[in-house]
From TrEMBL:
SUPFAM superfamilies: MFS general substrate transporter (SSF103473). It is a multi-pass membrane protein. One of its GO terms (molecular function) is transmembrane transporter activity. The chain crosses the membrane at residues 37-59, 71-92, 104-119, 125-147, 159-183, 189-209, 246-270, 282-301, 313-330, 336-358, 379-396, 416-440. This is Hippocampus abundant transcript 1 protein. Pfam families: MFS_1 (PF07690). Keywords: Acetylation, Glycoprotein, Membrane, Transmembrane, Transmembrane helix, Transport. It is found in: Membrane. Residues 458-469 have a biased composition (Polar residues). Residues 36-445 form the Major facilitator superfamily (MFS) profile domain. The keyword Transmembrane helix applies. It comes from Neogobius melanostomus.
Length: 484
């Protein structure tokens, strides 16, 4: 018992120290202005812009480091990262519900970008740190919880669409810029620039991002314990099974994001070697699809949510994804890839619509937990997807390991009826996802919300609810405290 008391005292001292670092002495949260969606947008843009710059150099370093079975090793690296992300996402989400979002934004962005400078220092350490960075590579989980803190329910889908569109916007120009600088000045300059952008993102969080979670929405004490049940990803998956709505949403996310994750890991190289795009055409393709995705996730998403509702927007997005993957699978001409890319942009409305329906059915003090659960499933897909695609390419003898040969000489089955077999497997997976999503209810009652079974009976958690108490339980979980 004495040892436990000492541990608790040390933990409380650490918590108070962390609180002093994050909160100024006067008790005013650090940051510029009131918390807004634009703070979240800048954080996401800078993080993924830095990684987008490395698109071309990373393929070269990957092939140089693993000349044999390049994409199988790529799948293994991303598999370890995805598994760690799956394991850690619920804990990060639960901790951010207690300690606030800003500190965990800083933590996740720092560790996600930590491997960047190692690309030129030591490729082996670079890939090792990428694998290990999965423990904290859950920025989207914290960002979506941040957005949920500062928006009301009817605004949330638009805000999530803006955040997702920013991810697309970060990839509009960064791969082309990185490819140009790599050819003109070498990979070292690209790595230095990406590192500088990542440092800028970290500084922006430290200086400009205000805390979004109101103090009264947190537990009464920073010493409030986080139970193992909240942090255990498998426990949260078991909880998912107790609620039919959350179970349906999670299965939909898994089946739809699994092929997307695999596609993201290998598609640009597939365009280069099998469809015979030039490097310039690949960069232009990324830019055009990125711009169309921005329009889809801002203008189109908002109109669809208002006109046909949340659930039908998800179904429409999944329908576009099936069409896109089937077109990629059967397409053998460049114009087919361009047409399928336009459809892919429309399919990007699915995830923000899913995030909105998840957020709407969660209590305000549980936004980090539920977003962490969804991000954890996506992390698992990020591990399984690349390995699955690489294995299917291998089974069908579509060789993707040699990045040095000209596109015209790349290996390909001469009379292949299906140029891209993994994409057809992906289309079948998304079709199953669409069938599951048909059973998701458009409106969920308070008793069905994930937060209803995520709350615990300990004293600290009982103080974390909004002051309205039981009167708020009968309402939709609007964030009355969104104005900090």
């Amino acid at each position: 018992m004495t040892g436990e008391k000492k541990k608790k005292k040390r933990l409380n001292r650490s918590i108070l120290l962390a609180k002093k670092i994050i909160i100024k002495d006067g008790g005013t949260p650090q940051g510029i202005g009131e918390p807004s969606v634009y703070h979240a947008v800048v954080v996401i843009f800078l993080e993924f812009f830095a990684w987008g710059l490395l698109t071309t150099p990373m393929l070269a370093v990957l092939h140089q480091t693993f000349p044999q079975h390049t994409f199988l090793m790529n799948g293994l690296i991303h598999g370890v990262k995805g598994l760690l992300s799956f394991l850690s996402a619920p804990l990060i989400g639960a901790l951010s519900d207690v300690w606030g979002r800003k500190s965990f934004l800083l933590l996740t962005v720092f560790f996600t970008c930590a491997p960047i400078p190692l690309m030129k220092i030591s490729p082996w350490w670079y890939f090792a740190v990428i694998s290990m960075s999965g423990v904290f590579a859950v920025t989207f989980s914290v960002i979506f919880a941040y957005v949920a803190d500062i928006t009301q329910e009817h605004e949330r889908s638009t805000a999530y669409g803006l955040v997702s569109a920013t991810f697309a916007a970060s990839l509009v120009t960064s791969p082309a810029i990185g490819a140009y600088l790599s050819v003109t000045y070498g990979d070292t300059l690209v790595v230095i620039l990406a590192t500088a952008v990542a440092l800028l993102d970290i500084c922006f969080i430290l200086v400009a991002v205000p805390e979004s979670l109101p103090e009264k929405m947190r537990p009464a004490s920073w010493g409030a314990p986080i139970s193992w049940e909240q942090a255990d990803p498998f426990a949260s998956l078991r909880k998912v099974g107790q609620d039919s709505t959350v179970l349906l949403i999670c299965i939909t996310v898994f089946l739809s994001y699994l092929p997307e994750a695999g596609q993201y890991s290998s598609f640009f190289l597939y365009l280069r070697q099998v469809i015979r795009f030039t490097s310039e055409t690949v960069a232009a393709f990324i830019a055009v699809v990125g711009i169309l995705s921005i329009l889809a996730q801002t203008v189109v998403l908002g109109m669809l949510m208002r006109s046909i509702g949340n659930k039908n927007t998800i179904l429409l997005g999944l329908g576009f994804q099936i069409l896109q993957l089937a077109w990629y699978g059967f397409g053998s001409q460049p114009w087919m890839m361009w047409a399928a890319g336009a459809v892919a942009a429309m399919s990007s409305i699915t995830f923000p619509a899913i995030s909105a329906i998840v957020s709407r059915n969660a209590d305000p003090d549980q936004q980090g937990v539920v977003q962490g659960m969804i991000t954890g499933i996506r992390g698992l897909c990020n591990g399984l997807g690349p390995a699955l695609y690489g294995f299917v390419f291998y089974l069908f003898h579509v060789e993707l390991t040699d990045t040095d040969v000209p596109p015209a000489l790349s290996s390909r089955t001469p009379s292949a009826i299906i140029p891209g077999p993994p994409f057809l497997f992906g289309a079948c997976s998304v079709l199953l996802s669409l069938l599951v999503a048909l059973f998701i209810p458009e409106h969920t009652g308070p008793g069905m919300r994930p937060g209803a079974y995520k709350k615990h009976s300990n004293g600290a958690q009982s103080h974390s609810h909004s002051p309205q108490g039981s009167g708020a339980e009968g309402k939709e979980p609007l964030l009355e405290d969104s104005s900090v």
